[in-house]
Amino acid sequence: MLTSYLYIAAAVVVAVIVIVIIFRLVWKVAEPNEALIISGLGARGERTGAAESLGFKIITGKGAMVMPGFQTARRLLLDSRAASLEVECVTKQGIPVSIQGVVIYKVGDDFVSIANAARRFLDQQKQMDETIHELFTGHLRSIIGNLTVEDLLLNREQLTSEIRSSSANEMSKLGLIVDSLQIQEIQDHSGYIENIGKPHAAAISAQARIAEAERDQEATKSEQVAAAEKALSIRDSQIKQASYQAEVDKAAATARQAGPLSEATARQDVIRAETEGAELSAQLAEQKLQSEVRKPADAKAYETRTLADAQRDARISSAEAEARETELRANADAMRVQTSANADAEATKMRGDAEAHATRATGEADAAAAQARGLAEAEAAKAKGLAEAEAIQARANALAENQEAVVAQQLAEKWPEIVSAGAQALGNVDHMVVLNGADGVSDMLAKALTLGGTGMGLAKTLLNSMREDGTVPASTNGTAQDSTAPAPATDAAAAS
Q1: Edge-to-edge, what's the strand order for the sheet holding 71-77?
Q2: Is 162 helix (H, G, I), strand (E, B) or coil?
Q3: Which whole number is the average pLDDT over 124-142?
């Protein structure tokens, strides 16, 4: 019975071992850095995508059963790989350069990238570096041909970015991704790069020398400042030492003078005490005078001054009252006078207005009367003028027809005046002596009568001249004379 149990247990163990071995043979596990590609019968995953559509399964990070004889499992490494780049190319300036760099790449982690990489490199994973080298070498030559040496030196980041962007599509088709692309070295055999750096190196060298000189100058200035400060410190120290020595000397002198000073001070104290005693005696005498003489006198003076002030204030109050009363009385009189004057002025104004109104009415009446009189006088003057004009016209007509008759008539009309003028000439004679007696008187009368004939002749002469030129001739003294005017009395006087 025991033997039977042992056989059964051994069989079970063997069966378990066989099962484990078989399981290890059919169960394949993908490591973290690899992808398991299973192809063969039934090798289609649950996912729908490009990889499954091609008839193989991709397993990452876990295990899968592979049926021996019906399926095949192969591993695709997902590790990072590095491919060196060494390119001989020509820049845009025609300068040959040598570029050295490195590309770090790997298979993409997504199933599409793994599928693309598996289709291209599953059995040629060792040739992957050569493929990457050829791919990036072509892109690098193409890009460098459009750049200058300066661009290559100064913009390496831009160069790597352009290379990665231009190769991104092809890398995606290969199922690869670029982790890093570095341009390690750029060399040229013509010395162009070396010559480019020389001006900058010279400028840097010059700047370095300038900076060194400036630093030397600053250091020299600092040293001079430090020396000056040192001298200043030495001077201050010596001054302080001299000051301290002076204080020491002063203290020594003071100590030497302490004895005489003490004696002088003692004498001063004695004199001061005697002075204070005298001052106290004087103050005592003054207090006696104050209490016995000055205060009674002040009280008496205060009483007198107070009584005088009271009397003065009383008089001032009385005067102010009288002035106020006078002011009020004057204001009342002024108010009364002003009221009376206002009344008189108002009455005068009213009388003036009345008189002005009466005067204006009287003036208007007088003006109307004067206007009427003026009009009447004008009418009378007009009638008189018309009458005189008619008389003149009639006289002119008469002169034209019978001048002598008219002149004789006018002389006859004016004869009394002529005789009167001649008599006036004789009347002015205060004393007249007639010679030749009766004959002299007869001659004088004859001459007086001759004046009438002379006037008539003069009138006729005037009329003749008027008839010739139509104007009245001027007299010998420059004034026009009326033909009807009597002869001047000067002739009679001349005759006398």
Answers
A1: 56-59, 34-40, 71-77
A2: helix
A3: 89
> How many C-beta atoms lie closer than 10 Å to residue 56's C-beta?
22
| C-alpha to C-alpha distances, 287 to 179, 297, 299, 427, nearest whole angstrom | 121, 14, 16, 129
- Which residue has tokens 């006398």? 496
- The three-class DSSP label of residue 470 is coil
27-29/96-107 β-pairing: unpaired
With the CA atoms of 312, 313, 316 and 317 taken in that order, what torsion angle do they form, in degrees rounded to the nearest 10?
A: -150
Task: Tell me how far apart the alpha carbons of residues 119 and 54 are, in angstroms, rounded to a whole number.
Answer: 10
Dist CA 43 CA 59 (whole Å): 11
pTM of the model as a whole: 0.41
Closest CA to 118 of 30, 23, 25, 26: 30
User: Model confidence over 62-92: pLDDT tens digits?
Assistant: 888 888 888 888 899 988 999 998 889 888 8
Q: Report d(CA 186, CA 147) in Å as an integer.
A: 13
Question: What span, in angstroms and rounded, lies between the C-alpha atoms of 414 and 380?
Answer: 26
89, 145 contact by CB (below 8 A)? yes
Distances (CA, A) of 243 to 240, 247, 248: 5, 6, 9
- Which residues partner with 83 through β-bridges? 103
Cβ pair 492, 426 in contact under 8 A? yes
Query: What is the arithmetic mean of pLDDT over 169-185?
Result: 90
Report residue 479 as tokens.
């004034």
CB neighbour class for 422 (10 Å; exposed up to 12, middle 13-18, buried from 19): buried
**In whole angstroms, what is the distance from residue 341 CA to residue 380 CA?**
55
Q: Judging by DSSP bridges, how do beta strands 34-40 and 71-77 pair with one another?
A: antiparallel
Counted residue by residue, the chain has a size of 496
Antiparallel, parallel or unpaired: β 56-59 and 63-65: unpaired
Spatial CA neighbour of 38 closest among 11, 2, 64: 64
Q: How many Cα atoms are found within 13 Å in the side-chain-facing hemisphere of 180?
A: 10
Handedness of CA 48, 54, 57, 58 (dihedral sign): negative
CA pair distance 38, 75, nearest whole angstrom: 9
**CA 366 to CA 318: how far, in whole Å?**
69
Q: Could you tell me which residue, 1 or 144, shows the higher pLDDT?
A: 144
The residue type found at 198 is K
Confidence (pLDDT) at 392 = 83
Strand, helix or coil for residue 107: strand
**Tokens in use for 68?**
């021996």
Distance CA 113, CA 105 (A): 13
Burial of 114 (0-12, 13-18, 19+ CB in 10 A): buried
Side chain identity at 132, as an amino acid letter?
A: I
